């Protein structure tokens, strides 16, 4: 969930490659993909209802100090250097567009969210989605509405297309 | 292949004090005097009802995980939440994704998960995270040996689940003269297992050690 799309794809590709080399090919359902998802009747309404809760999640839920993220010995020197190089970007001010462009964040109408999930399933070679439908300080009514819309409007659309599975089956 | 959808919840404590922005971190050393158990009790009930609803509307699985010393999550013991969910979530699979096995005695975690699998009628799935860096400030485990302990813990759990006991295990960190948990999982050879992480190449490089284990995850 906290890995960029580009990096997540590289890791999945590497994992598949290594597993296959060890004679243990990975099935699409064995690679769950974390997706933050929020659905509403229009794109504007979805963003208006959702963005502040994501801000709370990023700015307050995830707010921590670099020394806590990497206690002594937890990371190799190489990893520590790599993480320090992007440290400024980890805890800057919240920018919804930047965050949703980089991570697997699907917010909008059911069609839009289903299309994104289908597209990401295809890109990542997975049919297994771990949906974060409650985020930050989201109130109960929004969570319940979101769960219902995802279940009734998004899941059937994704299952109806299942582009990821079809692409893999064609390989 | 049918796409699978899980509902994951972090169960955050959302009643932060007005002055919380003065704190550089809401993890590790954020003062726990700001935790109100009465407000938390209301939140727990609310969050449990959200899991229950996800099951009713057709999600395939519900997912809980573990964090310590933070308002980000009220699940320092996710197996307790999973046990609470079993009678409320009737159809969905119950995923504990999960307790860092190196922060527990692995035999006890193997037993705990086996209990959940039996109690849920074989609906348990588990993940073995290394745990964020923050967890190592909250728990008395040396972060420098975290990965070695992680590997060894998973070996022990898989051995406890898949080999008839009594057996034994002699590792660098854990020694079992008699590895023989009485409660064993309902799913054979064991519940589906996942390795979860946030992009470090090291967990995936460990996977070759569990090639046979992942092969068993069907």
Q: What portion of residues of chain A is helical? A: 55-70%
Cα(first) to Cα(last) distance of chain B is 14 Å
Beta strand % of chain A: 5-15%
Radius of gyration of chain B: 18 Å
Low-confidence stretches of chain A: none
Secondary-structure arrangement, i.e. CATH architecture of chain B: Alpha-Beta Barrel
Q: Tell me how many strands of chain B there are.
A: 7
Number of domains of chain B: 1
Task: Specify the biggest β-sheet of chain A.
Answer: 3 strands, parallel
CATH class of chain A: Alpha Beta
Low-confidence stretches of chain B: 211-218
CATH class of chain B: Alpha Beta
One letter per element, helices H and strands E, the order of chain A comes to HEHHHHHEHEHH
Estimate what percentage of residues of chain B fall within beta strands.
5-15%
> How many structural domains of chain A?
1
Q: What is the name of the CATH architecture of chain A?
A: Alpha-Beta Barrel
Compute the number of strand runs of chain A.
3
State the end-to-end distance of chain A: 27 Å
Rg calculated over all Cα atoms of chain A = 18 Å
Classify the secondary structure makeup of chain B into a structural class: alpha/beta
Short description:
The complex is a heterodimer of chains A (171) and B (218). Chain A has 171 residues and is mostly helical.
């Amino acid at each position: 969930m906290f890995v960029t799309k580009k990096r997540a794809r590289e890791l999945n590709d590497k994992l598949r490659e290594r597993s296959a080399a060890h004679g243990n090919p990975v099935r699409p359902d064995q690679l769950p993909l974390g997706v933050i998802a929020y659905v509403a009747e229009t794109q504007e309404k979805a963003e208006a209802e959702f963005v502040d809760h994501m801000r709370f999640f990023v700015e307050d839920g995830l707010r921590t100090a670099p020394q806590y993220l990497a206690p002594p010995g937890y990371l190799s020197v190489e990893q520590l250097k790599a993480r320090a190089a992007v440290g400024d970007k980890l805890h800057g001010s919240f920018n919804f567009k930047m965050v949703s462009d980089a991570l697997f964040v699907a917010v909008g109408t059911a069609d839009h969210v289903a299309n994104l999930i289908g597209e990401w399933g295809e890109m990542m070679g997975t049919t297994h989605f771990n949906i974060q439908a409650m985020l930050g300080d989201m109130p109960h009514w929004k969570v319940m509405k979101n769960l219902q819309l995802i279940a009734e409007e998004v899941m059937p659309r994704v299952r109806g297309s299942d582009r990821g599975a079809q692409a893999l089956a064609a390989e | 292949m049918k796409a699978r959808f899980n509902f994951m919840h972090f169960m955050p404590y959302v009643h932060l004090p007005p002055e919380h922005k003065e704190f550089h971190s809401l993890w590790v050393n954020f003062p726990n005097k700001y935790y109100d158990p009465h407000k938390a009790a209301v939140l727990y009930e609310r969050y449990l009802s959200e899991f229950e609803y996800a099951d009713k509307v057709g999600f395939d699985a519900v997912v809980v995980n573990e964090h310590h010393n933070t308002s980000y999550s009220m699940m320092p013991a996710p197996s307790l939440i999973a046990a609470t969910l079993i009678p409320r979530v009737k159809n969905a699979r119950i995923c504990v994704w999960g307790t860092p096995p190196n922060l527990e005695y692995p035999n006890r975690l193997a037993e705990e998960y086996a209990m959940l699998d039996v109690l849920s009628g074989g609906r348990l799935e588990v993940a073995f995270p290394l745990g964020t860096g923050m967890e190592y400030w909250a728990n008395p485990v040396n972060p420098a040996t975290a990965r070695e302990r992680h590997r060894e813990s998973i070996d022990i759990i898989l051995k406890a689940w898949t080999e008839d006991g009594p057996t034994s295990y002699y590792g660098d960190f854990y020694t079992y003269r008699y590895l023989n948990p009485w409660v064993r999982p309902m799913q054979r050879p064991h519940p589906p297992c996942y390795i979860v992480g946030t992009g470090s190449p090291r967990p995936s490089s460990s996977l070759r050690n569990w090639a046979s284990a992942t092969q068993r995850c069907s």
